[in-house]
Each structure stands twice: as structure tokens, then as C-alpha cells.
Amino acid sequence: MRAEGLTLAYDKTVVVEDLTVSVPRESFTVIIGPNGCGKSTLLRALARTMAPRSGRVLLDGEPITALRTKQVAKRIALLPQSPIAPEAITVGDLVARGRYPHQGLLRQWSPADEVAVRDALDATEVTSLRERLVSELSGGQRQRVWLAMALAQQTDLLLLDEPTTFLDIAHQLEVMDLCAHLHEQGRTLVAVLHDINQAARYATHLIAMKGGAVVAEGAPQDVITAERMADVFGLACRVVPDPETGTPLVVPARRGGHIRHA
Q1: Rounded Cα gap, residues 123 and 158, in angstroms
Q2: Which of 37, 164, 203, 257 could form a disulfide with 30, with the two C-beta atoms 3.0–4.6 Å apart?
Q3: CB 117 within 8 A of CB 92
Q4: What's the Cα-to-Cα distance from 65 to each of 118, 133, 207, 210, 213, rounded to whole Å?
Q5: DSSP track, the chain
Q6: What is the pLDDT of residues 74-109, one digit of tens each?
Q7: Which domains does the chain have, with CATH numbers?
């Protein structure tokens, strides 16, 4: 997947301007950057849920705008930042909606759909919640159910906007481990994350953004440096090897570790 010369705006407010970036095939790409830098906006454009003011998004070399909606949905699944469930829908029914791209006039619900839903529920550990109403769940449980719906779509490309929102640290790591497992199975993942150390631990490819522009991209060890953290986040820190994984670990300086910009 590749974006070329993207300019993205909400009404008259330009968020991203003339941005070009590539997502390597079968990578686990993570987008990092401060609030308001355009991370989620870029993800929406990659998913074709936001039309660029100029530029284009290519999927396997083909303009994504040239594809029909169901063609895109069979190839890209999106977990948005704050999804809203329909009223009075059960967990099982919501996850089953991930199979919509595979339905048609000549193909209704099938055993393969049932298997896909079951596997997605199992993978996110929400099988026991299948008959519960989504509205009755905690924020963390709902987040896992939405991820299950995206998994049930069975796409090769999965876009995740802050997938660990509302989760405690243990469940955050479970979700990230699940994402890593999906990547190891050959899927391409693109995620927006706020936790720099989780991004550095799990990503194979990092994209750092600031002010609507890409300031660095590449392997975590090349992108995560003390100098770049100061530039992008205004964060005074040390970057040391993670004792568990050897990946870059950001250790903020004392007293908050913020750099005041003049």
C-alpha cells in the first residue's frame, strides 16, 4: 500500500499536506506522533473512509478509488478509533457483520462464515460474551469485540486506530501479541499507537509523523532515537535496549522529561 502526494483536510483545516509514504507488504507498520499530527487522518485515507483533497492511495499498485466498496472490504479491514455499535446488538451478531463483504445474492451465510466468526471470538477471548449485548460490556470488552469483527473479515490488510484503547496493560499486551501473531501468519498490519515502547517492541516498520508530515520511517532502531523523540514529542529521554526484546526502549528524563519550545 502506498500514499502519494496526499493532502487531507476537514473543511478548511488542512491536516496532512503533500504526504507520500509506503507500507511494506507483510509488515507490521506502526504510525507514531503527537496528538493532532494527522496519524488517524492518514489511516482513514488509507482505508478509503476519507477522500483526499489531492493525491491518491494505491493498493497493490492500483488506485483504491477504482475499486468497488466490497472489493476494498475483502482486502482491507479497519478498526476505527471510537466505533459505535447499533442498538441492542449482541456480540455474536456484531462480529458476524465482519462477514458482510463475503455475502451476496448468490452467497448467504455459510459454514465458512460460522468458522470465521468462531475463530475471531476465540482469538480475542470473547467467546463467552457471544450472547451478551454489546452495550452491557466494559470499554475493554467492547474493544476486543470490535477487533474480533475486524478479524472475522479475514482480510490480508488490517488497519487499527489505537487498538489498545480502554485496555489495561495485561490486555494491551495480549492484543499486541495477537497482532504480532497475525503478522507472523502473513498479514500486513498498520496501527496507530500512542505507546512508543509498544510501537518499538512490536513494529517491523515505523512511521513517525509531526505536523501532518512524515519525519522518519524505517526499522524501529533507526526511527526511535533520543534526538528524534525530542524533535517529534518534545521529550527529553534516553533510548536503551529493552531487556526483554532488545528493541529500543524510551526512558523519559526526570521531572516529566518535556522540552519547552520557544
Answers
A1: 15
A2: 203
A3: yes
A4: 32, 36, 24, 27, 23
A5: -EEEEEEEEETTEEEEEEEEEE--TT-EEEEE--TTSSHHHHHHHHTTSS--SEEEEEETTEEGGGS-HHHHHHHEEEE-SS--PPTT-BHHHHHHGGGGGG-BTTB-S-HHHHHHHHHHHHHTT-GGGTTSBGGGS-HHHHHHHHHHHHHHT--SEEEEESTTTT--HHHHHHHHHHHHHHHHTT-EEEEE-S-HHHHHHH-SEEEEEETTEEEEEE-HHHH--HHHHHHHH-B-EEEEE-TTT-SEEEEEPSGGGBPPP-
A6: 999 999 888 888 889 999 999 999 998 887 766 788
A7: 2-257 (3.40.50.300)
CB 38 within 8 A of CB 209: yes
Backbone angles phi, psi at 126, to 5 degrees: -125, 20
| Average pLDDT score over residue span 20-33 | 97
Please report which confidence band the pLDDT of residue 258 belongs to, taking 50, 70 and 90 as the band edges: low
The residue type at 59: L
pLDDT of 165? 83
Q: State the distance between the two ends of the chain, measured CA to CA, in whole angstroms.
A: 38
d(CA 48, CA 140): 27
pLDDT digits (tens, 9 = 90+) for 105-139: 667 888 999 999 999 999 888 999 999 999 999 88
Q: Which of 30, 42, 34, 47 is nearest to 5 (CA)?
A: 42
C-alpha cell at 15: 491536516
Cβ pair 177, 163 in contact under 8 A: no
DSSP-assigned beta bridge partners for residue 218: 206
